[in-house]
Amino acid sequence: MANLVNGNDIFADARAHHYAVGAYNINNLEWTRAILKAAKDTQTPVLVQVSMGAARYMGGYKFVKDMVEDQVDSMGVNVPVILHLDHGDYEAALECIKLGYPSVMFDGHQLPIAENYQKTKEIVKLAHAQNISVEAEIGKIGENQNAASGELATVEDAVRFAQIGVDKLACGIGNIHGIYPADWQGLNFQRLDEIANAISIPLVLHGGSGIHRDQVERAISLGISKVNINTEFQLAFQQATRKYIEEGHDLDKEHKGYDPRKLLLPGTEAITASMKEMIQWLGTPSVDEISQD
Ligand code: 13P
Prior knowledge:
This protein is α/β, with parallel strands linked by helices.
């Protein structure tokens, strides 16, 4: 049976040694296999995360947990795998805690800050009783798709949330989910630095796709330890699939180019290739290098 881990030791090590571990969203079976393959090939720890929408699409949180565990086993994945709920609301976080997800995010950013604080506190208590890691969010990262900058979290809120005992904190530092608009102003390193100086828990960069490598590396040097990636792999999958179809391979009846196992293969391989590049950007060390500390 696959041994999924909560990742607390890994992220603490990442924060202490200025590297990051990628948190890669899964959308289906191919995504799951592509991500686990990149982790196994590079022998690096991996966080596999599922959003509420993606879990619904795939058949629910239990199905996702069973599928990830079974894939880890059948692929012989021999690196730490952290299964994580991404942007869970209160009910989703409770359900995943009950199911034994090793790591959950409770995203209360849409709530008034006092309610976000209170609910995060409750989730931390329930999760920690089962050795489950908790990520919280402050600053509205998810809501700025068309803005030139995401909202900035305050240092004061970061300190208050860290005091509750959250294991990782996603702070808005100008980052945005999805494709960044052309006039995006970039990450706010001053705010990141202020927050990182005030709290020592691992910090999370959401909306990790499409940020220039220099900015990602600088953010990691300042305290970002988990970088969330979804759109990057969706675009890699889309471009490779588009190429396959534009080259007419799906029309090749003789070689059964229409078979989904062939049609979906270039996109799946593109995800693995894109993740291997991302691992270099993030400086994610191999499991051997981590255990040598
Ligand atoms: P992107 O889709 O912008 O990579 O963001 C992913 C993310 O932050 C998931 O929580």
